[in-house]
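Readers of this paper often ask what the protein records in our data store actually look like. The remainder of this section carries one protein's record, kept here as part of the documentation.

:::
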Amino acid sequence: MEIKHDIHTHTTLSRCCYDPRATVGNYVRRAAEFGHKILGLSNHLWDEKVPGASGWYKNQMISYGLQQMDCVPADTCGVKVLCGTETEYYAMRDTLGMLAETAKQFDYVLVPHTHTHMRNFVMPDNDDTVAIKNIFTERISTALPELSADQVKKMVNALSYGEMDAMAANGTFRAPTVDMVDYCAKFMVNSFNSLMANSEFEKIARTVQTSVAHPFHPCGFSRDMQKKIIDAVPDDELRACFERAKALNVAIEINTGAFRFPENDYADEPFIRVMKIAKNVGCRFTFGTDTHSLAGMDNIRKGDDISRIVCITESDLADILK
C-alpha cells in the first residue's frame, strides 16, 4: 500500500525542531509533491491546566500550539491539513499532559509512552545511574567546596545518559547491578499498560482520534541497544497491550523514523514483529515520520514497504485517515 498521509510532524513551533525550513507551508507543499491526501501537524504540547510540566514543556502550551493552523497556506494543493498534537505521558506520576476538554480543539492526539530519554520525568533513573550521580556529586563537592549544591547538581546533570549508561555497563566505578535491556523492556510494558488505564487518557480516546506515538520505541538509545530492548519484550505482553488499545479504539502509530533496520527488506527490524502482533490483534494504524525537518518527510516512503510486510491495508487505517 502506498502511504498517502503523514500525521506525525514537528514544525519550527516545536522546541526540538532546528530546521528553519520546517515550516507549515513547506510541509504542505512537500506533502502535495508526495501525493498525500492528509498532512497532520503535531507539535509537542503540554496543557497549561495540567500541573507537572517539565522545564522543556513549560513554553509549549496549548495556545502556542494552535498557532500552527494560522500558518496553513490558503492553497494546500489538495492536501487536507489536520490540526493535531503530540502531548506527553508523565509515566512516573501517571500524569497525561492534556485534558480531554482541551483535546476537543484538535483533530487528533498522539501520546507517546516511551520517551525514555526524559529520565526522571518519563522513565525513572535506575540504581546504577543514581549511584554514578552520587559518586560524581561527592567528588565534585569535595574538589570544589565553594560550589553550591545546585551548581554541583547542574555539573553532574551535564553528563549525558549515554555516558552514564556506558560507565555503568563497563563498571567504571562499581560492578553494574542493573540489566538495562530488561529494565527498559519492563518499563515500556508497564508504561503502556498504565497509559491505557489512565482515566484522562480514556476520556481523550472517547473524545478525539487518539494514537500511541512510536509504541515500544526506547528513545535515546543506540540503534543496536534499541533492538535488544524491543526484542526483550515478550509476544504475549505485546499482545495484551495491543488488546487494551483496541478495546479503547486507540490506534497504533507506525513511526517510520523508528524503523532503523531497512536492510534486506527489514529482515532484522524488531518493529516488524511488534506491528504484526498489533495487526493480528485487530488494531487500527496511523503512519507518521516524526519528522523534525523538511528532509525528514521523505521517510514516509518506508511506510510503503512496512505496510506490505506487515500486511496493512486501507481497511486497517484509523477512521480519521479514510
Q: What stands out?
A: Residues 180-197 form the longest helix (18 residues). The longest strand covers residues 80-86. The mean pLDDT is 96.
